[in-house]
Amino acid sequence: MTWKAEIDGSRCMASGMCAGIAPDLFALDAEHARPLAEEVPEEERVLDAADSCPALAITIRDGATTVGPRP
């Protein structure tokens, strides 16, 4: 199964935390991070990347349900 990863470019501050945690799933461009694919595997490190974002710019969804970042 897979989740969908979204990064809000207006919130992203390019800290690189997501790319550091999951470099095969997230990349850091000049101004923002981005998911390398719209769908990401259902893995703990995907949620860790969303949780670690200092700007809370990453949203992980399972269908209509938001699963990350965790409260």
Automatic annotation (TrEMBL):
Top-level division of the source organism's lineage: Bacteria
Cofactors named for this entry: [3Fe-4S] cluster
Name of this chain's protein: Ferredoxin
Pfam families (alphabetical): Fer4_13
Entry function: Ferredoxins are iron-sulfur proteins that transfer electrons in a wide variety of metabolic reactions.
Keywords from the UniProt entry: 3Fe-4S, Electron transport, Iron, Iron-sulfur, Metal-binding, Transport
